[in-house]
Design a protein that fits this description.
The protein is of the alpha+beta class and 619 residues long. 29% of the residues lie in helices and 27% in strands. The chain has four domains: 178 residues, Immunoglobulin-like (Sandwich), CATH 2.60.40.3650; 108 residues, Neutral Protease Domain 2 (Neutral Protease, domain 2, Orthogonal Bundle), CATH 1.10.390; 214 residues, Neutral Protease, domain 2; 81 residues, Pdz3 Domain. The protein is built from 18 helices and 29 strands.
Length: 619
């Protein structure tokens, strides 16, 4: 096959149906097999995109020009075969995709906008993933204000961006999202490379100048860190709704979903918590352009879109990225030391509140993302580790220990980038631990292996003093029942159990998810008087609870536990030795020579030169 030719149209955006056709020439006679991906890289769950595909039809045009209708037999959930095709025939496959997924992972179409992710749209002939692709987007006559935003290479397009684009292969096609609609476009330049932010759904006024200025500082800080910008253009697709949050990285772009109230307003002053969350999302997805899209697990050198493709390394590729996303807000000068520690403290609090972070090893959490992380249930908090937040804390602890040994996580990451990411060779777990050993010694590499291969308590609190930090733990004022309530039912005034935490008072008493607590010591209790009533008891007191389970009234005896952790705070000690003060300052701001340190280690291990500094061995 010399070219895969796709055509995309939207006859009626209100019905949320995207019409797609694929035309290609058949190189040899026989049977043609077509498949649609089941997942999108960056979101590790089989999402069964084929469930939205319908009305598939086939037309075959012979070399002589005669056309005939054919039949595609569905042989698997996402696979079709077309029999009795002759060499040189032109095959056209037409189908529709129902597109109303309010996320960053699939396709969405309405009278307001369209978001196109190729893995949920484009069927592909088997063994044709490396064939060049052409895709044409047809303009919607009823919406003359709509324009197209994408980093696909334009071939023949009009002033609004509708027309034909090309991709080197199927991989590039499905890794390049497209936003169509009434777009607000904001541009800036970093390291001589054009960057653009396109917004849909803003609706309300916001401080465009501040958003772009802050975003540019983040991008510049990351470009300076890696010493290169590995793309010729970058595009942020920002889709704003009333209440949404999420992001997905791509090779030269990213898709972000956020609440429109997260945007900064003119005269806002100090950045709000919601705005910082949005900037952290930008930082996270942009960082992925280096880490995940280019420096990636060797297992992902070539994506298999048609089945699960697990890796044990998400604790690095998502966890380290989650560590650096907020750290770059500090290094870019958007927040100060205190604000950064507040964000780090929030991650620490989340980890300590979920018992599962001490049950499931990080490597297992990475490998099982396909069946666990993306499919949470009522007991997930007690069983599953979060490779984002716990992975970020382990990355921070590793960074601190490397700095105690004269190096840093910056240097390790930059070595991995220069050795395995810049040329996209892919990296293995063994090579990651070897890089840590080179910078921090074999003992530190063994410490990291233990942290990810076995379930361990979070490591930050024991190390905080080495960076001149204090750890403050705030506990609730009430004895702990060891359950979490359904938030929607709380709004309705009901005390309905959402989660029963492992090892807590509720678990020992036999409470279960969906139990509705209605009385304490035979006294009726509602949301409004739950806390005043519970305040009359102390940890260790045993009380009776009445609750409904599946409509049946039940009773149990509960021995209340110690107050639960409410928040953990990292604060800065003011009286420090010069060495500790310097270490903390270098962590917050990064050293200008870190990039060169990473390069030196690559050169030294290749036998070309020797490092000018050598980290001491671990104690």
């Amino acid at each position: 096959m010399t070219m895969l030719d796709y055509h995309v149209s939207f006859p009626n955006p209100d019905d949320h149906l995207i019409h797609v056709s694929l035309t290609f020439s058949v190189p040899c006679s026989g049977t043609v097999s077509l498949s649609l991906p089941v997942w999108i890289p960056g979101s590790y769950l089989v999402r069964e995109f084929a469930r939205h595909l319908s009305a598939l039809s086939v037309t075959i045009t012979s070399k002589k020009g005669s056309a005939r209708r054919s039949f595609a037999e569905k042989v698997a959930k996402n696979r079709w075969t077309i029999a009795r095709v002759a060499a040189g025939d032109r095959v056209t496959v037409c189908y529709t995709v129902w597109a109303y997924d309010l996320s960053v992972r699939e396709a969405f179409l309405s009278s307001d906008r369209a978001l196109l992710n190729g893995t949920s749209l484009f069927v592909v002939p088997e063994s044709s993933l490396d064939v060049p692709c052409r895709v044409t987007f047809e303009a919607v006559v009823a919406y003359p204000e709509w324009t197209v935003a994408t980093t696909l290479c334009p071939e023949t397009v009009d002033a609004r961006g509708f027309g034909t684009y090309t991709a080197r292969n199927y991989h590039e096609l499905v890794d390049t999202p497209v936003t169509i609609g009434p777009l607000r476009r904001l541009g800036f330049t970093v390291a001589g490379v054009a960057h653009e932010l396109v917004c849909t759904g803003a609706e309300i006024p916001f401080d465009e100048a501040r958003l772009i200025a802050d975003l540019k500082r983040i991008c510049q800080a990351q470009a300076d860190f890696f010493g290169t910008v590995p793309f010729s253009r970058y595009l942020f697709h920002l889709h704003l709704t009333d209440d949404g949050y999420g992001g997905l990285e791509h090779r030269c772009s990213s898709v972000l979903l956020a609440a429109r109230c997260d945007l900064p307003w003119v005269g806002m002053g100090e950045a709000s918590a919601d705005y910082l969350k949005l900037l952290g999302l930008f930082s996270h997805e942009y960082f992925h352009a280096w880490v995940v899209k280019r420096l990636r697990p060797r297992a992902y050198q070539r994506y298999d879109y048609f089945r699960e493709q697990p890796t044990t390394l998400l604790w690095l590729f998502e966890g380290w990225t989650a560590y650096y996303d907020n750290l770059f807000l500090r290094r870019a000068g958007i927040i100060d030391d205190v604000a950064y520690l507040r964000l780090l403290s929030e991650d620490l609090t989340r980890v300590l509140k979920n018992p599962g972070n001490q049950v499931q090893p990080l490597a297992d959490a990475s490998f099982d993302a396909w069946i666990k992380f993306y499919r949470p249930h009522a007991h997930s908090a007690s069983l599953f580790a979060n490779y984002y937040t716990l992975g970020a804390l382990v990355a921070c602890a590793l960074d601190w220990q490397l700095r105690l040994r004269g190096s840093s996580l910056d240097a390790v990451l930059l070595e991995l980038w220069h050795r395995y990411g810049r040329d996209e060779q892919g990296v293995s777990e063994r090579e990651i631990f070897a890089a840590v050993a080179r910078h921090g010694g074999p003992r530190l590499a063994r410490w990291l292996l233990k942290q990810v291969a076995t379930a361990q308590p979070e490591p930050l609190t024991k190390l905080a003093h080495r960076l001149g930090l204090e750890v403050e733990v705030e506990r609730d004022t009430l004895p702990d029942l060891g359950v979490r309530w359904e938030e929607q039912e709380r709004n309705a005034g009901r005390l309905l159990v959402a989660q029963v935490l492992a090892g807590g008072a509720g678990e020992r008493a036999g409470l279960a998810p969906r139990d509705e607590v209605i009385a304490v010591e035979r006294v009726r209790v509602t949301l409004s008087d739950w806390e005043p009533l519970l305040r009359r008891y102390r940890p260790g007191d045993t009380v009776s609870l009445h609750f409904f389970r599946e409509g049946v009234l039940r009773e149990c005896r509960v021995t209340l536990g110690e107050p639960a952790i409410k928040a953990v705070r990292l604060t800065m000690r003011q009286r420090l030795t010069p060495s500790v003060a310097a270490r903390r300052r270098a962590w917050f701001t990064a050293q200008a020579g870190e990039n060169e340190m990473g390069k030196r280690w690559v050169q030294e291990s290749d036998g070309r030169t020797s490092p000018t500094t050598t980290p001491s061995s671990a104690k």
